[in-house]
Amino acid sequence: MVVTRLDDANDELLADYRNVPDPELVARRGLFVAEGRLVVSRLLNGPLVTRSVLVTDSAHDAIRDAIDARPDVPVYVVPQTVMNGIVGFNIHRGCLALGERPPARHWRDLLPGTRRLVALERVGNADNVGSVFRNSAAFDVKGIVLGPACADPLYRKAIRTSMGAALTMPFSYVEGWPDVLQDLRREGWFVVGLTPDSSAPTVGEVAAAARERRYVVLLGHEGDGLTAHALEACDTHARIPMAAGTDSLNVATAAAVALYEMAREGR
What we know:
Elements (H helix, E strand, L loop, with lengths): L2 E3 L17 H6 L2 E5 L1 H9 L4 E6 L1 H6 L1 H5 L6 E3 L2 H8 L7 E6 L15 E5 L5 H13 L5 E3 L9 H6 L9 E3 L5 H8 L3 E5 L8 H7 L5 E5 L8 H5 L3 E3 L12 H16 L1
Parallel strand pairs: 1-4, 3-4, 6-7, 6-10, 7-8, 9-10, 9-11
Antiparallel strand pairs: 2-5, 3-5
């Protein structure tokens, strides 16, 4: 293990960490940022490449087991004040890492070995995208299809909210939206679009109809929901029954409820 103690925020070994506040610049360099002790530990233990780790002394002690298991990864130990000066904001847990973005996947690469997928359209809030990844992992989803205008799952806030699930859950950005939904249907996938429309069947009813089938749960924009074109491309729509006066749920919460109902019917 290469552990280097640094006291100078201008040290060139830390150059990539100065880009942390600019997610577009980080992404253009083919990198992503993992933040927090749990998430960094999961990055070190996961399938993606870790470029380096930046920690304070207390964080180093807290994740020492994960660090010791990866002697190939450079570790930079700095005072908290130096870390704050490098990244431009206070990292309360004193723990960051840089990972290398994986090669882009084709959506067809997500299909083998699973019967559950999630698809997102225009879900632009990073916290919501991260929460959808976390909820999807909880209900044994094996891949997520990302349509237009979705937040980056490897943005540090999305990774943090996903509790590291974005580091292990395969995903694919797709073009030709929503034609990919029709392609999935042609390959035998049952595409379920969530909607607050009171005329739609409930998720429980749809789950019963989808028993033993491979299915995709499709969710849309936090405010506007799914576009008309996406709704037209679905096999069916489904709603989550709610109390009178409540018109919708947070998109990540809706994903969790729908996936629970679909998985429960499968069991």
